[in-house]
């Protein structure tokens, strides 16, 4: 439909806000993206590579509301596909600006190195469809903004515009726009709030103005993380791309609490991360940083940077917020107002799924707005979408947003709950206990089973749902591994009982198969 439908206001100009603007631009005449910080909005400037450490640091400081501005970011395959559907050409713009792109033609164990605790993933080709886009947060934001503005003349970024309050009409139960800190009021037919820093204000608004109690859960593992930049050694620069290690990770498995990650980013630099749980910190010196990497059970991240020259200071993120999920879908939301991004679900950053989660929510928003626009057109071919046409869509969007964020949220939550010191509600169900044992068994099998490793990668990259972990070839290997573990831990009498039970079960299953064939 024509873009003649009034104004949509997006609160927050980071990744989630930019993607929400891409969704809204398809149906609204005007989309204003409001951010309290100073953001570059010239497409010509944004498309120029920004690859020096000094310029990256300065741009990250300007967007100070993004706590992870100098934190490494990787865009997983499922999220990358969603980005491309929302912002066609985004991936190529990232590559042109210096991002490192790895597709399913690279080798696990060579260009990509992954370990979970002491279990290093088997050497194999990446699974079909797998990809990983590596860059700094600054680059991802620049390229998303450039692609959005270049393709949509109806979108405008408004820097240094701090939203103070929402314009709420009690009679109609709807949000009619926003009030800025300057006192200026901006009317809008639809408002999308994507700022995690405003989540307390959102909850307060819904409770005081709308009479809606917002339930939430929080899982906190006491995460501290530290990031450093390193100059890529000359010997690495002289290697062909196929011989370079682009991404090396050693993730923790309970009870271990330290992890390390090194990846190539723009400007011929490595970005390296040390994360520590249970409130542990890393010292401020380069030697302290390298000591934590060297102490990991797998040395891949340490080997990548041990001979590299450190650039600049350590960027420390202490007392990270943890995983917080607000259940807005259980509220009766005011009309013409929705909450997405970090304000809906703030995910533990060590899992690297925040950008993917934002892209899934933005795709959902685009589809819901398109549905409302189609309904308006069905009533009258020349009708423009109005706030009246959007009545009921706030609740629909929040319910669909909950579904869009469920997979990344569940994977992050269950990862946090591996640790006894994780605060937050726990389930005592046998299903959750079994799932914990099942995932541990999968990680045990990563060094020796390409089928299991490939399946794990596709699920972790949001290419397949978690149910894919239970396909027969994986389940057989996992159950055999669990049985072998249990066998080695039991007495001779118990082994005989288990053997007898297994034989009896086999006979029953065989009879069932034969009976089925006869019928």
Automatic annotation (TrEMBL):
Organism of derivation: Apatococcus lobatus
Lineage, broadest ranks: Eukaryota, Viridiplantae, Chlorophyta, core chlorophytes, Trebouxiophyceae
An MF annotation (GO) of this entry: monooxygenase activity
SUPFAM superfamilies named in the record: FAD/NAD(P)-binding domain
PANTHER family: THIAMINE THIAZOLE SYNTHASE (PTHR43422)
Protein name (Swiss-Prot/TrEMBL): FAD-binding domain-containing protein
Superkingdom of origin organism: Eukaryota
Residues spanning the membrane: none
Pfam families from the UniProt entry: Trp_halogenase (PF04820)
